[in-house]
Amino acid sequence: MRLSELGELGLLAELERRGLAEEIENDAVELEPGLVATQDSLVEGVHFRLDWLSWRELGFRAAAVNISDLAASGARPEALLVSLGVPGETTLDDVLELYAGIAEAGVPVRGGDTTEAAPVFVTVTAIGRSERVPGRSGARPGDELVVSGPLGAGGAAFRAQGYVPPPLRVEDGVELARTAHAMLDLSDGLAGDAERIAARSGCRLVIELDEVPLAPGARYEDLAFGEDYELLAATPEPGDYAVIGRCEPGSGVEIRQEGKPVALSGWEHFRLR
Questions:
Q1: Which residues on neighbouring strands pair with residue 240, listed in sequence order?
Q2: Which helix (H) or strand (E) is 264 found in, with range?
Q3: pTM of the predicted model, to two decimals?
Q4: Helix axes 55-71, 92-103, angle to 10 degrees
Q5: What is the CB neighbour count within 10 angstroms for residue 147?
Q6: Model confidence over 87-119: pLDDT tens digits?
Q7: Where are the alpha helices (DSSP H) in 104-189?
Q8: What separation in angstroms does the CA of 106 have from each of 168, 172, 231?
Q9: Which of 5, 125, 156, 241 would be 39's cystine partner, CB 3.0–4.6 Å?
Q10: Element of type H or E holding 205
Q11: Cβ(59)–Cβ(101) below 8 Å
Q12: Helix runs in the chain, H state only
């Protein structure tokens, strides 16, 4: 079977089934109580184009998407490991700009690797500490679904052939983790990421599109693009966060607009499009 048929989620499930990976249901792993690690890669032509963003913007983005995974685990970041692959003709100034962008995220680089490669790729491992990691499997009927900020900015920027810097929601993650039964960051689209909570938790998520806060210039269809990096949490205590839905008995995700079900796709690597 080809990966284009299996998809990213199917690949991960197959690795688990064969005993080749374990406890990979979250974007971050709790290595020991309170110690959390995550890793993400950005590949030229897949995640970014250097004619659409600068090297400094790429550096910040590489750090921020990993810090976002830590935030979804209620963790404050402490260190980054950065592996960089670039062509040999890349200038020193470009690489320095990339690392300056990483530094803007406010977390020290403590190691990593460099190699010659084409296309450009940046892989970051982020390490942090959390008092409580919600995971994705604890959502239960009666929980309300909240988001940490407006959605659709990533899709709106892509339509304009650009990018927006991911938000850093570390403190929101720490706050939500105190009560959330499940939480993740919205990187692959609202519907797709909500499905991951529903599947792991064994409950049904109902989302009311009319209640979803939209970023300036965003449309509802931009919610399918992903790359918002806001937090989605299932919690009994929503506090001041925007409530966009709820958890019910059952399975799957239902998206509603003006009380009627609507379709909203999401992103999944390897799938044919």
A1: none
A2: none
A3: 0.92
A4: 30
A5: 24
A6: 999 999 999 999 999 999 999 999 999 999 999
A7: 153-159, 170-177
A8: 10, 16, 20
A9: 125
A10: strand 204-208
A11: yes
A12: 3-17, 55-71, 92-103, 153-159, 170-177, 190-201
